[in-house]
Task: structure prediction
Amino acid sequence: MDDLKLYARSPEQLQGMIELVSAFSQSICMKFGLSKCAVLHVEKGQMKMQRDELRALDSEISELKQGQSYKYLGLYQHLKISKTGVLTEVEGEFRSRLDRVLKGKLSAKNCIKAVNTWVIPALTYTFGILKWSDTRLEQIDRYVRTRMTKFRMHHPRASVARLYLPRSMGGRGLMRVSRLCVSHETKLRSYFQNADSDLFVKVCQLDNGYTALDLRNQRSSELLSAQDLKEEWRTKELHGRFYGHLNSEPISQELSCMWLTVGSLFPETEGFVQAIQDQVIATNAYRRHVMGDRTISDKCRMCASAVESIQHIVSGCSVLAPREYMLRHNNVAKIVHLEMQIKFGNIADVPPYYNYQPPPLVEFNHVKIYWDVQMITDRRVVHIKPDILVLDQLEKRAYIIDITVPSDENAQKTRGEKIRKYQELSFELKEMYGLNTVRVLPIVITVNGLILKSVVEICRSIDLVDEVLKRMQKSVLLDTARIVRKFIK
Result:
């Protein structure tokens, strides 16, 4: 500690204390910053000017005059702390730092991390020292959300609870200033009230509303936990639908939130994807039934045959299906096709999946990898064209891999349909090639990036690690965002 404040009964006693500090500073080779020092004489609560100057190291220490203040531990003070001035200053610094972060080019996760670790600490320095009103703290939280909205990082109608939830639970991990203030004050209050010190006991007895901690009175503050935020999210009519899908039994919550825990998307894209998941995009159905604009029809502007909800746009429009949905599907399949080549062959240069066009057949010694090829069978089979077929003649096994990107509510149903769809083909291949095993492997990732637990087991069984799942999930989410942007532009 190199900041020190001296209290004395008289100028003579204060001069002696200054000489003691000066001598000690010299003995430990620490410079005495006279330019930052000041003297304030107080008598019966009023400032009093002194004729006799006080000196340290043969230099005069200036006297603090009326209207002046000095900065001690980051807070401007005179006879007392200038609370209004300090609050205004720290809020100004907070807003300046926030804009500098939001204007940067950080990834989504790093942007939130920068706000938590560099922007918000401009305020936390004063928690427990200055009295912050609940209203002022809520205004600061609202200001953060407003600025994020201005920079297109947060949709104004998206779930607020998700913004403050940990990323592993489907949120974005932003710290809530109002909650942080209560937490700091609670910990400081507990420290003083439970300390085994006569001095602290006396301080607690005297502090009857004098400081922000109000140590004399027992105060209990309710802190919103992660479970409280989850419950707030769950109970929302629109926002809660995605919560229900994410926390359903067939879904792997850990891997479904992997895109958030990695946080490699741009902040704008991450906020847009969450707005899609929260179903607050301004579709015709949303504008008519939620925002109350009765002048427009709720029918799809493309196909005009169904209600234009966000679910319809991302997975149910017949006009978008042949090109947009197929492109999203193929991008995921390309990632799997490349990984199968890496697993069974030796690729010198792996191209980006979005620039890759798989050939109909790739052969590696005893392994053949088919891409979207109609298989010839002895008997008539209805479904003979899987997305990817891996035929290992040495190990006498085959993988029928079919990719699907359904809506959230149809994930489990689609998985069952894919297994039944290729059951006959698996029997035919087993007989024709004399195989020991033929596995039907449906890889299901929903339009909002949800991953079934069964898909995790399938991928790991064929050596597709979580890193590959992460790339497939990211591909789906980027294409879903692209489809929605293109649709509503």
Q: What stands out?
A: The first helix runs from residue 11 to 27. The chain has a mean pLDDT of 91.
